[in-house]
Specification:
Layout (H helix, E strand, L loop, with lengths): L6 H12 L7 E6 L5 E3 L6 H4 L8 E5 L12 H16 L7 H16 L23 H13 L6 H13 L9 E5 L4 E7 L2 E6 L2 E7 L3 E7 L2 E8 L3 E8 L3 H19 L9 E2 L9 E2 L6 H9 L33 H18 L20 H9 L4 E2 L21 H10 L6 H10 L2 H20 L1 H39 L5 H7 L2 H31 L1
Antiparallel strand pairs: 1-2, 1-3, 4-5, 4-10, 5-6, 6-7, 7-13, 8-9, 9-10, 11-12
Length: 541
């Protein structure tokens, strides 16, 4: 990769490798050294966006979930979206009722292992596969029952299509959660979906705001503001607090991109957005891609032979996007199971403190923009919808960061040398023998989350002072720049021979003539006299 290569070059190269034409729904995401996630911006240099040293680790995934995934033109696109939603299901981002969960898992089974065969699939075969963060025997029996009796004869493409149609109806379809806290200090997850802005708390959807009701989004530090205009000219401001300023900026940029993609009719309507009302302060950002309507119109014009799809079965493989959706590693050779488990665990450790994927531990609400009363009225105006049988907690199974192949063997040796369990079964046995381990790890996690807030107080104050100083410097620079422009205009008016209509009208006004003869000419003579005195003094010395 050349040093000046743009993100668009890398993305196009990847889509060409995948033989993907409907590529506007996808993006590349990476994690910086501070564990904050970012989308790769296609208009900027790849190397300049990376704060780490090469080789860079990035993830190709769905960025804008299709409003109707079943309406996608090509099967290769539907398959990639299927893999993404299947991953969302496993990592707890896509929640649903138990009955819906069983049907979705059965579709996955049918798509990836085919029809039920008593010779190949003994009793309890569905328990060998893990589709969700948590399983129960009752759910596994229900999955097997649907797979046996209702889905026989469906091809992989048909099962994937039915899976997409069912997933698209769920409340958490397309949710990429951002952990925050509201003005009352309650934990919440904010997300942008194809249909609007969503706030999730517990197992309920407490807010759903359509894109045409969102009038503005902005952020200041850790605080995110959402301005809403509903029916009868009712205006609401929702305020939430992100764990870090970087996480809040990432949330704001994701909101700007999603609103532009789903709401606008043409990409020519996209405007540069500022996070502040003052043009010399805050961040500026502009969505650079096409909008959903243009993407659908372009997809309708695709005319080519359907590309061949190499589907991956439910067998863990580091080259397959479904590595974490595979069986519980019982049908894989032991050495391979160890390698796969270690890659997952290392990825979990690298993202455990990610500002994008872990719950917020603490936030200051003293400077809340919206009063609690206003927030309460907003909440009461929304219909609370129960989205699942369990609480929405995607942090329980974080998306692992891919691990470089050349480091896999080193990690395996280090884990064995430390006596760490090398498979999920061994991990469970180890934890069963030490009941205090879970409590100790939980306490350690709380301590790691709380210590930065207590020990970094001075750093936070210094950061606020630095931001204030930068803001004052910006104001001074803008003021000096305006004065310089006015001085240049004054010199042009008084000293130049330009005889345009604009200058002629100004020069003929009585006010300008009075200023010119009573103030400017004496000032010019005084200044010229001083300059001559300084020059003569320099010559004499």
């Amino acid at each position: 990769l050349q040093r000046d290569a743009k993100g668009q070059y890398l993305f196009d190269l990847l889509c060409h490798h995948l033989n993907l034409l409907e590529k506007d729904y996808f993006g590349i995401r990476f994690v910086d050294p501070d564990k904050q996630r970012h989308w790769l911006e296609f208009t900027k240099s790849v190397v300049k966006q990376m704060r780490a040293q090469p080789p860079f680790t990035m993830c190709f995934r769905v960025k804008f979930y299709p409003t109707d995934p079943a309406a996608l033109k090509e099967e290769i696109t539907r398959y990639l979206v299927f893999l993404q939603i299947k991953r969302d299901l496993y990592h707890g981002r896509l929640l649903c009722k138990t009955s819906d969960a069983a049907l979705l898992a059965a579709y996955i089974l049918q798509a990836e292992i085919g029809d039920y065969d008593p010779g190949k699939h003994p009793e309890g075969y569905s328990s060998k596969f893990q589709f969700f963060p948590k399983h129960s025997e009752k759910l596994e029996r229900k999955i097997a029952e649907i797979h046996k009796s209702e889905l026989s004869g469906q091809t992989p493409a048909t099962s994937e299509l039915n899976f997409l149609r069912k997933a698209q109806t769920l409340e958490t379809y397309g949710v990429d959660p951002h952990p925050c806290k509201d003005v009352s200090g309650n934990a919440a997850f904010l997300a942008f979906t194809p249909f609007g802005f969503v706030v999730l708390q517990g197992n309920k959807r407490v807010h759903f705001i359509k894109w045409n009701e969102v009038t503005k989004m902005k952020f200041e530090g850790k605080t995110f503001y959402l301005y809403v205009s509903q029916k009868e000219e009712k205006k609401i401001v929702l305020t939430y607090f992100a764990p870090t300023p970087e996480a809040c900026k990432h949330l704001w940029k994701c909101g700007i991109e999603n609103q532009a993609f789903y709401k606008l009719e043409k990409s020519s309507q996209v405007r540069t957005v500022s996070s502040s009302n003052l043009f010399f302060k805050g961040s500026r950002f502009r969505y650079s891609g096409r909008v959903a309507k243009e993407v659908m119109e372009s997809s309708a014009k695709i005319k080519r032979e359907p590309p061949e799809i190499h589907r991956a079965g439910l067998v863990p493989s580091r080259s397959c996007p479904s590595i974490t959706h595979g069986p519980r590693l019982s049908s894989v050779p032991r050495t391979r199971r160890r390698a796969v488990h270690i890659s997952i665990m290392e990825g979990l450790e690298s993202l455990r403190d990610s500002a994008h994927s872990t719950p917020v531990r603490s936030a200051s609400h003293g400077d809340a923009f919206a009063a609690p009363g206003r927030s309460g009225r907003a909440e009461s105006s929304e219909r609370v919808a129960v989205i699942a049988d369990e609480n929405y907690s995607p942090a329980d199974s974080v998306l692992p960061t891919p691990v470089a192949e050349h480091s896999l063997e080193l990690m395996l040796l280090s884990r064995q040398a430390n006596g760490a369990p090398c498979s999920i079964e061994e991990e469970k046995e180890s934890e069963a023998g030490t009941p205090v381990a879970a409590e100790a790890e939980e306490a350690g996690g709380e301590l790691r989350a709380l210590c930065p807030g207590a020990g970094g107080l001075g750093a936070a104050q210094a950061e606020q002072v630095n931001k204030f100083v930068l803001s004052v410097l910006r104001l001074l620079l803008v003021t000096v720049g305006l004065l310089f422009v006015l001085l240049l205009l004054l010199i042009v008016l008084t000293e130049s021979d330009l005889d345009t209509a604009f200058f002629r009208d100004i020069r003929q006004t009585p006010e300008f003539e009075q200023f010119h003869y009573q103030y400017f000419c004496p000032l010019r003579r005084w200044f010229a006299c001083k300059v001559r005195a300084v020059v003569s003094l320099l010559i004499d010395t």
